[in-house]
Amino acid sequence: MLTFPENFLWGAATAAHQIEGNNINNDWWVKEHTPGTQIVEPSGDAMDSYHRYREDMKLLADAGLNCYRFSIEWSRIEPERGFVSRAGIDHYRRMVDTALEFGLNPVVTLMHFTVPRWMFDSGFWRNPAAPDLFARFTELALPIVSEGVDYVCTINEPNIAAMLAGGEDAANLVAFGLPNPDLQVADTLFAAHQRSREVLSSVPGLKSGWTVATQAFHSTGEPGADEKLVEYGYPRDDWYLERSAGDDFVGVQAYTRTFIGPDGPIPVADDVETTLTGWEFFPPALELGVRSAWELSGNVPVMVTENGIATADDTRRIAYTDGALRGLHSAMDDGIEVLGYQHWSALDNYEWASGFRPTFGLIGVDRETFVRTPKPSLAWLGDVATRNGLV
Fold first, then answer.
1. What is the DSSP code string of 135-183?
2. Other residues' Cβ atoms within 10 Å of the Cβ of residue 182
């Protein structure tokens, strides 16, 4: 059996806007309802997890998992600049307490893409005051994470956020090519991350880092492809991993790979198995992302904060996860410190510009009744967690 370290975290991840429902006061809700939007459908009630989080956590715990990564919604805590919702803070503190009640280690993400409308209207991440505003939000979140929380993710996928800010096209989240990143936004996100970590350091023992969507860019080997790989990949991936140096951990979010030719990224080949997002079925992406994060950060401990596939065939989800975990174990055998594995996603949910069609979840959700149906993949991953190893 391939055994993992004692106290290894086995869990699943979600994001507030993708599961809560009716986050009407953030920027993404506005994008969903703007005439002419390329977003295929609005989030609406989503999975109604704002009210059903206890049921969701219990399903994960009953399956054998010991961790749950979730995000808090800035627009519920500070719906207008300077106005603080005590009820919003209390809600997310109850989520932490519920996770602890069920024996789940809560990994809390402060910002998973969405920001309040007022933040977006004031310049978003191009606002020079953005790092200060995010630091203030972190201060507001301290009562949520000050007890019983070991790990806080400050900003989810800042590299994707900077690319979306550069391209302004949410549809590019699922395209084979990614928009040019806005480098000013990248710098601002890094400054916001640092300011947030300063605030979080006031809590003894609390560990913080950000999460990076590692891309597993591959050169096609054609003349000029290697050079293009560096030019294309560095500002979309490596730059963020390098800036994780000195953090308590770095989150790795790995799904697939992209081939880079002399002219840039190329589409997935016709004869390759793909998922519902059109990405290549490629379990080694996780090992590659973890190795890259460890090397480029200067050996900062790694936490897998997302890994999974969108599929209607749960047997392929199990096969993908099994392959990804075997690669992860191989990296750990080589001395890489990995703290835990969070599967994306706990629930079938709202996948941003793609809507509800791509199903990543370990748990299915009826969108009319909100009835939860655990899939065999949840039981499989729970068994792995219970054994703390792969047979």
1. HHHHHHHHHHHSSS--EEEEEE-HHHHHHHHHH--GGGGGSSS-PPP-H
2. 20
DSSP string, 28-64: HHHHHTSTT-S-SS--TTTT-HHHHHHHHHHHHHHHT
Q: Which CATH topology does 2-390 take?
A: TIM Barrel (3.20.20)
Burial of 20 (0-12, 13-18, 19+ CB in 10 A): buried
Q: Which residue has the tokens 């055994």?
A: 3
Residue 264 CB contacts under 8 Å (≥ 6 apart), including other chains:
177, 228, 232
| Cα–Cα dist 189/185, whole Å | 6
Contacts for 130 with CB less than 8 Å, ≥ 6 apart: 119, 123, 124, 188, 191, 192
Mean pLDDT of all residues belonging to the chain: 96
Phi, psi of 246 (to 5 degrees): 90, -10
How far apart (Å, rounded) are the C-alpha atoms in residues 233 and 159?
Answer: 11
Cα separation, 97 vs 100, in Å, equals 5
Q: Closest by alpha carbon to 119, among 75, 168, 183?
A: 75
Q: Which residues are catalytic?
A: 157
Going from N- to C-terminal start, the domains of the chain cover 2-390
pLDDT tens per residue, range 328-382: 999 999 999 999 999 999 999 999 999 999 999 999 999 999 999 999 999 999 9
Phi, psi of 385 (to 5 degrees): -65, -40
Span 291-300, mean pLDDT?
98
SS3 228: helix
Residues 370 and 56 sit within 8 Å (Cβ to Cβ): no
143 CB burial (10 A radius; 0-12, 13-18, 19+) = middle
Whole-angstrom distance, CA of residue 75 vs CA of residue 15? 14
For the question of whether the overall pTM of this predicted structure is more than 0.85, the answer is: yes
CA distance 343 to 377: 11
Distance of alpha carbon 289 from alpha carbon 254, whole angstroms = 6
Surface-to-core class of residue 60, CB atoms within 10 Å of its CB (0-12 exposed, 13-18 middle, 19+ buried): buried
